[in-house]
Amino acid sequence: MGFAPLERNAVSNFRFSIFDFRLLWASLIGVLFFSVSVHSVFEPAELNTDNPTIIVVVGAAGTLEYGVQFAQWTDLWHETCTKAGATFITIGSNNKGELDDRTLLQNILTRESKQSNAAFWLVLIGHGTFDGRTAKFNLRGPDVSADDLAEWLQPMLRPLVIINTASSSAPFLNKLSAAGRIVITATKSGFEHNFTRFGQYLAEAMAKPQADLDKDGQTSLLESFLDASHRTHEFYTSAGRLVTEYALLDDNGDGLGTRADWFRGVRPVQNAEDGASLDGYRAHQVHLIHSQVENKMPPLLRAERDRLELEVIKLRDAKESFSENEYYTKLEKLLTRIAQIYEQADGTVDN
Questions:
Q1: DSSP character for 179?
Q2: pLDDT at 257 over 50
Q3: pTM of this structure
Q4: Closest Cα partner for 117 from 289, 254, 303, 285?
Q5: SS3 state of residue 249
Q6: Helices 198-205 and 221-238, axial angle in degrees (round to 10)
Q7: Confidence of residue 273 (pLDDT cuts 50, 70, 90)
Q8: Strand (E) or helix (H) holding 263
Q9: How many beta carbons lie within 10 A of that of residue 94, not counting itself?
Q10: Each residue's pLDDT tens digit, 87-125
Q11: Is 347 helix (H, G, I), strand (E, B) or coil?
């Protein structure tokens, strides 16, 4: 049986997000700066204290034109990683060595699977195929399937971001989704098999100040996803062409994915019909290039902030079970502690 499209069924209910608390936090606590999220990809025990590793796999281009484009997108990732101080590795962009690209990728993933606090990013740039059962990413030489990556990444004991910008990439989300992971695909279905432009716009958005929707001085992975999705749609609209690619983001481990048009700004504004939680909160906390405020925050304080932000969202979800006074009393205590964390990070309060 083939994969069904991964797009959710929506209902038109407005969904309040934790991002709605930003103004409340500022008015109650006097904090005019902070990065809002629901969950962190990095739980306190898995805090990212080291620089991330980003591996960009460039697939078989097929034509010179595609090869030039893929090289440009790879260069954009390299520039962003340089600014971020991240370790950058490429496969498929150089002359072939003794090992084929598939074996080389497997070896690197095996090497990188050891437990680490540093995040690991896998970015696939190229073409993909889907025969109704198996989705593959086209490499020079033997291709790599979604099943292959699922097996190779299973031992990965570190925060993981997987981005497949190829055509027919949606089944990779279904196969690779798991708790503690962020998975992005350029398509919502394996049957969207035309060349995809999402990869270009995502590579550009990663270090793009204009993509910083919440104006916190840094561009999150969620914001990059939204910017790239909107620009992809604008490309087809401007050209008077039928849209043939709809990107998905999954960061809650349910394997469903959420499209960009489910967001207003960085806030999800629709509910899934099955009651499943929407994606985006974890991805909004992930940045390659941090703001000055975020850079000032020591790892332990960041872990505590993340935990408290999770408490805020849990409290919000249980709001109906409290009286109004009890709810806002509990909320103020959490917000006050978060404000104190930012003051500590800024050096205004003794640790």
A1: T
A2: yes
A3: 0.82
A4: 303
A5: strand
A6: 140
A7: low
A8: strand 263-264
A9: 8
A10: 999 999 887 778 999 999 999 999 987 777 789 999 999
A11: coil
Query: What residues pair up with 221 in beta bridges, in sequence order?
Result: none
Give CA–CA dist 138/183, Å, rounded. 19
pLDDT score for 229:
98
Structure tokens at 168: 């027919």
In this prediction, residue 233 has a pLDDT band, given cuts at 50, 70 and 90, of very high
Name the strand (E) or helix (H) holding 209: none
Provide the pLDDT for residue 3.
42
- Beta bridge partners of residue 123, listed in sequence order: 56, 163
155's tokens: 């031992």
DSSP structural state of residue 87: E
Residue 335 has pLDDT above 90, yes or no: yes
The kind and range of the H/E element at 11 are strand 10-11
Report the mean per-residue pLDDT for the chain.
83
Is residue 72's pLDDT more than 60? yes
Cα Dmax for the chain: 68
SS3 56: strand
> Of 172, 174, 170, 117, whose CA–CA distance to 149 is shortest?
172
Domains of the chain and CATH, by start: 17-35+291-351 (no CATH), 48-290 (3.40.50.1460)
CA distance 309 to 334: 8
Mapped onto helix, strand or coil, the DSSP state of residue 201 is: helix
Residue 212 has pLDDT above 80, yes or no: yes
Which run of H or E residues covers position 294? helix 292-296
pLDDT score of 271: 66
List the 120-125 sheet strands across, edge first: 87-91, 53-58, 120-125, 160-164, 181-185, 248-250
CB count, 10 Å around CB of 133? 10
Instruction: Name residues whose C-beta falls within 8 Å of residue 294's C-beta, 6 or more positions apart in sequence.
Output: 35, 218, 287, 302
